[in-house]
Amino acid sequence: MDTNAASSPRTLHQGEVPLYMETGKAYPRAVSGTFRSLKWWAMAVTLAWWHLAPFLRWDRGPGSPSQAILIDMPGRRAYFLFIEIWPQEVYYLTGILLIAAISLFLMSALAGRVWCGFLCWQTVYTDLFVWVEKQVVGDRSQRVAFDRQPMSAGKFGKLALINSGWALISAACGVGFTLWFGDAFEVLRDIVTGNASVAAYGCILVIGGFCFLLGGYARERVCVYLCPYSRFQAAMFDEHSLIVTYEAWRGNPGGAARKGQSFEGRGHCVDCRACVQACPTGIDIRKGNQLACIGCALCIDACNSVMDRYELPRGLISYDSSANIEARGKGTKGGFRLIRPRTLVYGGILTIVASVMLIRLMSRPDVDVNVLHERAPLYVQMSDGSIRNGYVYKILNMKAEDRSFTLSLSGLDNATMDVVGGETNAVRAELQVPRDSVGTFRIYVSAPAAGLTGKAMPVAFDLSGPSRQIRTPTLFAGPEK
Question: Tens digits of per-residue pLDDT, 118-162?
């Protein structure tokens, strides 16, 4: 009985298409080879990045966080090496997401679902969880037999051991996530000593819980039913995209064979189903490219080991383009085409978006201003007849040093400014803003009523600083003439 085969589904009425059909649990068999080694290396790199990158340091000077990559939610900042992103610069996040999406499209056009097979977190943690199962129970046949056994003390103990291993890995995943949002050394110490916030423990529980559920129990169902990428990935492929493919021209007609048997007049496929048993989603790659194929290429390693056993050429299942496979089937020579319309479009969009972000980063100002006119009341008439308006003036000092600015007013004759807690009845005001912070000032502007020409007059605040001058237009309200 094939445990990867579909279980008996309910009877469908004519024309009915099921949204979900249980295909049975996949029990991937352990294999060795080039692609299995690449997957181990990919797992090591991605997990090392996830858990160790928050501990990297970057000197930003005294008073600034020293973590190289940090999302500081209380401080409303995001730090990436020498780059500091403020809340009003959230458009950088849009640019990063766009670059990630286009990079995925380009990656798919070139090498198929290489992201799914080697770098996706679902793949990485599922691989790790299957490895835990293998250490406790054994390889594929042992795990199949284990699941069929009735519950007993021994089985319960092994299940408890497996789930405990999964829980530890999931907890580490959740802890790794929280380290990106605070100083990693301090956050880790607080978590271990029980002094972390409720939000931190809640975050570990949610992230770790999903890791445990998706990597331990949902597994291939996530790739087939939950992941949207599997639904539209084929739209990014063409005949020159590298994908995992069974070379039917060479394998068919196949069938069972004995070692030493002549393969003259028949295909090289011996119907051993090693490719199916090695597949983490349980598909048969011999049936062609399928939605559930994540491009992990483990079937290639499995098939190559069988070809070696029968002293047949490797590559019955290959990581190649359909154009090359078709060319070989006709006895001609193919080749990998890197430059083609699809890759040029993706590459061009990626270059444009990355260039715009780079230019913006290089030219981004280190100071910004925001002015808010008080509306309750719009103006006040003083005892001497002058009209006064109130403003909230904010200066964003995005530089790691204290700075002094000079503020003046233009467009309003004989106007003076009163800065709460600072200068009064002044034409110019000196404003001090601490390093890497927002300076908020309440300013009252007074002008003689005789000089006002309308109900709302255009005026401007002029800010002079060490690096640039900023003019911010606003309105001065008064009584209607």
Answer: 999 999 999 999 999 999 999 999 999 999 999 999 999 999 999
Instruction: Supply the DSSP symbol for 357.
Output: H
Instruction: Report d(CA 414, CA 427) in Å as an integer.
Output: 9
Reported as a single tens digit per residue, the pLDDT across 334-389 is: 777 888 888 999 999 999 999 998 888 888 888 889 999 988 888 888 888 888 99
DSSP state of 57: B
Residue pair 52/424 in contact (Cβ under 8 Å)? The answer is no
3-state SS class at 380: strand
User: What does the block give as tokens for 204?
Assistant: 């570990």
The pTM (predicted TM-score) of the whole model is 0.80
Pick among 3.20.20.140, 2.60.40.10, 1.10.10.10, 3.30.470.20: CATH of 367-477: 2.60.40.10
Upper half-sphere CA count for residue 320 (Cβ side, 13 Å): 19
Residues contacting residue 203 through CB under 8 Å, at least 6 positions apart: 174, 177, 178
Q: Does pLDDT of 475 surpass 50?
A: yes
